[in-house]
Amino acid sequence: MSTADASEVDVRRLALDQMRGWYCALCRARLFADRSLGRFEITFGRTTETVELWACAPSCEAVRQATTRRSA
Ligand SMILES: [Zn+2]
After folding, report:
1. How far is the CA of 46 from the centre of ligand 1 (A)?
2. What's residue 1's pLDDT?
3. What pLDDT, on the 0 to 100 scale, is given for residue 8?
4. 12 CA → ligand 1 middle, Å
5. Are 28 and 15 in contact (CB under 8 A)?
């Protein structure tokens, strides 16, 4: 089973909402249950900030399947 993890995060493409932990850093879904991916260093111009990123729990795949079932 392949579960997306922190190594797949492309911090350069994250939206502010994803950095704030409102949306999944991996699949951009709205987060209701989340898991920490750990802390990432993100560079804004000349400054670098350490931001904790969050993703769907238990996994993006599980959340997607649950969502599909609900709307079917
Ligand atoms: Zn996700």
Report:
1. 29
2. 46
3. 82
4. 17
5. yes
